[in-house]
Structure formats: C-alpha cells, structure tokens
C-alpha cells in the first residue's frame, strides 16, 4: 500500500527583519538604568574641571571593572590622536555614538533604508545601557584604542566585514565586535593614510587642538607631528598646508614657518583666503587618564610627571565613594550584595519546596490512616 505524499506548502520568503534580539529589561533593571543615567547626566553637566574629574572617576569605579580601568594610562598614549583629550568615559560615549551611527548606516546599505533610523541596538546614552553592554562597549573601545583607530572607522570596518564576509543577517552587537578569528585579518592594514588624512583636525575636535598650549602638551605635539607628516605625504603640499592655515585650521603662519620650508609656507599662504585665528590655551595640560593610576609593572604611571596629582585624585575619589555608599569599591560591594540576595532566594525556594513535600507527605499519611480505620 502506497501513501500519498503531502504537497509542500509554499511559504513566503519575505520575512520582516526585527530589531536585534534583546532581552526585555525587568522593572528593576529599567529603574537602575534611569537612576544610573541621572547620575551620568549630572556628571556631564559639571563645569569645574577638577570636580568633573572626580565625578567621572567615581562613576567609572562604580560601574567599570578595575582591570579595564588599569589599561587606560597605557591606552591614552597610543589611541587615535583626535581622542586623546577625552577622558575614558567621554571616549566611550563617543564610541557609543559611533557604533549607533555605523549600525544604522550598514543596515540602510544592506537591508532597508527605511528601517535603519528605527534600529536601536543600544541606547544613545552610554549609562542607559545594561551593565553587560556597558562593559562590552568599554572593552571594544579599548581595542580600537590599541589599534590607534578612529571609532567611526573601527565600527564601520567591522560591521561591513561582518555582513559581507559572514553573510550575517544583522550587524554585530557590542559583545560581538571583537569576537571571532577574523578580527585581526579585518583590521590588518588599517587605518590607511587616506583614512587618517580625511579625519585630521575636524571641526568637532577638542578646541585645545586649535590653540597654542601654555605648557608642555604631548597631545598637541603628537597632533602637530601628524599634521607635518600629512602635509609631506600629500601630492599637492601647498594645497594641503593651506587647508591647515585657513580659517578653522590649527596653524598660524609663524608656527608653520618653524615646521616647514619657507618656500612651501609662502606657496601655501598664497592659496589662503582667510587665515586661521589661533589663540592661546586657557589651562595647562592635564592627561585625560588622570585618576586611573595603576601599579602594574609596565604601566607608564611609574614615570609620569602627574603621578602625585593622580594619586591624590584617586584618594579623593575613594573618600567620595565611601561618603556616598560606605564602600571604596562600590562595584565589588554590589556584587557581594547580589550574591547574598541570590543565596537568600535559593534558600527560600528550598524551604518552600521542603515545606510543600512535608505537607504532601502528611496529607497522604492522614488519608492512609482514614482508609485503614474505615470498616
């Protein structure tokens, strides 16, 4: 006897692409995120530089692992030049913004331009993300710093290769940015000269790049070295130098004369319409990593001229944290509290299960006694 095969039903191949699979936040997690973001907003609103450093360091030590903070001093010296005036917290917010922009741009390019603006894999504010996403974003930002790459370029390369090379159905989430064996291959050869040249001295760079420092400033000096190399590498050197001498640029004719050949400066000035207005910095240089001093063997903190100020700031942050929550390490204290609550819930569950078993056993015994006593 032969059985007839059931005809296959044709299913539609067009399926709606939803937002990345994200676990719904519990009420407690949402409440914690809003409280954390409220503190973060107050930190960003502080105008006094010293108070701002203390508040940022306190926020970092509350939510970021110490092993990640210990890397900041070394990364500060090798990160992309445009990010070196940023504190670790400011740099991670910048990375957060770059990730969100790159995610939507890649979605528009490969999936749907109409869906792209509504994609929200992470929150716009760094502090509104889950603690796990905050750690993933911080770690990925540090990896970009290790490579000396601009954050927008870093995110763009990874997401493009993720979609094209792996045939993925969505761009990577924060915890996937640096995962996989192909990461090193994707990053090889980047950033190129063209990629860095088009990102030098952009209008959104810190204003300290566009003024003359009043003290020794290694970040400004490194930026000038990159500018010097960019001009010498360009095919049209006068035109490239004129770009930096024009309004909105970082160079005056006097400083250019100390960096380049007089003939090159003369040719460049002939192309300049309105010269750059370069003033003097209002404050002396302070490294953006201050407050993250570490005692690791290879850390640059051991030879840093700001070591005393950094240690003093770190002690001040510790006193502030103790005054707020009674602990100099609120992150570890929160972990201990979570572990205690988890153990308490586990004991309560076992107690209820034991009580239910005893009640069921007692009920069955009573039922058996009644049945045996019946005539």
Task: Characterize the structure shown.
- By secondary structure, the protein is an all-alpha fold.
- It has a domain at 218-271.
- Helices cover 57% and strands 0% of the residues.
- It has 15 helices and no strands.
- The chain has helices at residues 27-44, 49-63, 66-69, 72-76, 88-110, 131-146, 151-166, 183-187, 193-197, 218-233, 237-245, 253-259, 262-271, 307-325, 330-373.
- α1 packs antiparallel against α2 and α2 crosses α14.
- The radius of gyration is 29 Å and the shape is elongated.
- Mean pLDDT is 89; it is low at 9-16.
Beta-strand fraction estimate: under 5%
Structural class: mainly alpha
Distance between the termini: 60 Å
* Spans of at least 5 consecutive residues with low confidence: 9-16
Mean pLDDT: 89
Number of helices: 15
- Cα-based radius of gyration, to the nearest Å: 29 Å
Largest sheet: none
The total count of strands amounts to 0
Q: Order of helices and strands, N to C?
A: HHHHHHHHHHHHHHH
Anisotropy-based shape: elongated
Helix content: 55-70%
Q: Helix and strand layout, with pairings?
A:
Blueprint: H1 27-44, H2 49-63, H3 66-69, H4 72-76, H5 88-110, H6 131-146, H7 151-166, H8 183-187, H9 193-197, H10 218-233, H11 237-245, H12 253-259, H13 262-271, H14 307-325, H15 330-373
Helix pairs in contact: 1-2, 2-14, 5-7, 10-11, 11-13
């Amino acid at each position: 006897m032969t059985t007839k095969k059931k005809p296959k039903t044709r299913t539609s191949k067009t399926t709606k692409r939803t937002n990345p699979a994200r676990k719904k936040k519990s009420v407690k997690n949402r409440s914690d995120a809003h409280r954390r973001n409220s503190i973060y907003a107050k930190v960003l609103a502080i105008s006094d530089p010293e108070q701002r450093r203390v508040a940022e360091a306190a926020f970092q030590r509350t939510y970021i692992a110490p092993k990640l903070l210990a890397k900041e001093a070394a990364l500060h010296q090798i990160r992309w030049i445009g990010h070196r005036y940023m504190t670790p917290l400011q740099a991670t917010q910048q990375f957060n913004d770059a990730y969100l922009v790159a995610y939507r741009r890649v979605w528009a390019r490969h999936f749907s331009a109409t869906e792209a603006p509504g994609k929200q894999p992470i929150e716009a504010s760094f502090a509104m993300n889950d603690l796990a996403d905050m750690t993933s974003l911080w770690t990925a930002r540090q990896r970009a710093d290790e490579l000396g790459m601009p954050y927008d370029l870093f995110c763009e390369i990874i997401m493009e290769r993720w979609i094209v090379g792996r045939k993925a159905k969505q761009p990577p989430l924060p915890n996937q940015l640096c995962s996989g064996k192909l990461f090193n291959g994707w990053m090889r050869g980047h950033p190129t000269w063209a990629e860095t040249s088009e990102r030098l001295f952009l209008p959104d760079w810190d204003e300290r790049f566009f003024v003359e420092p009043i003290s020794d400033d290694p970040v400004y000096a490194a930026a000038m070295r990159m500018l010097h190399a960019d001009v010498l590498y360009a095919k049209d050197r006068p035109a490239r130098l004129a770009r930096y001498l024009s309004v909105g640029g970082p160079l005056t004719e006097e400083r250019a004369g100390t960096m380049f050949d007089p003939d090159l400066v003369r040719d460049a000035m002939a192309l300049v319409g309105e010269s750059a207005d370069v003033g003097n910095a209002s404050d002396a240089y302070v490294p953006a990593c201050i407050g993250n001093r570490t005692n690791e063997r290879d850390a640059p903190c051991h030879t840093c001229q700001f070591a005393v100020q950094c240690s003093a700031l770190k002690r001040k942050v510790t006193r502030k944290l103790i005054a707020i929550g009674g602990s100099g390490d609120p992150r570890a204290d929160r972990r201990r509290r979570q572990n205690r609550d988890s153990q308490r819930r586990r004991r309560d569950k076992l107690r209820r299960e034991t009580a239910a078993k005893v009640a069921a056993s007692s009920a069955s015994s009573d039922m058996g006694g009644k049945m045996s006593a019946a005539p």
